[in-house]
Prior knowledge:
The chain is of the alpha/beta class. Helices cover 31% and strands 14% of the residues. It has helices at residues 52-62, 76-85, 112-119, 133-144, 162-180; strands at residues 5-8, 29-33, 44-48, 66-69, 124-127, 149-152. It has a four-stranded parallel sheet with strand order 4-1-5-6. A two-stranded antiparallel sheet has the order 2-3. Helix 4 links the parallel strand 5 (124-127) and strand 6 (149-152). Helix 1 packs parallel to helix 5 (162-180). It is globular, with a radius of gyration of 17 Å.
Amino acid sequence: MRLPYLLLDIDGILIPFPAADGTTPPTHARHDVVPAGRTADHPVTIWLNPAHGPLLMDVIRSGLVNPVWCTSWRQDATTLIGPLLGLPPLPYVDLPRPQITTSHPNGYLWKRDHVDTWLGDTPAIWIDDDFTILDHAWAAERTSCGPATLLVQPDSHVGMRAEDLAATLAWAGELCAVVSGTPGAPCGADAA
């Protein structure tokens, strides 16, 4: 079995959006970063939870998923965000830069068509805060046609929680057991 991709968004997942009063979760530390196309005179301020790094490393070390950034941060996810969390370099989906004014120009998340093509027939777990009912219908249809797909949608003002990653690991473990026919059997390259 090919390991499912774990597609990770950043904004609203690792970087929560401020509450109506402008506050961010007290668990998150402030960082100023300089994304591609910016200069040190114009950094972007972000808030990251340092606990996310070890939690994500546990997921990576599980061997149950193939983690990939799926964010408008693109390569900056690997060069800026990942290192602040102590993550190794991860590949990223090279998303287009659409000229849109909403994240749902067709009623569903703008990334979805590109991600669907990129995934091919590989199973996937996608963690993003911006899915619509049409995205959930897409995941259900994709699963019914073969490549199992799980969407995890944290609250964008809270961000990813340990429970979200626990659910991700449980789902990936169940998928491995179903495909192998043996609970606890190794998956991916270990299954040979």
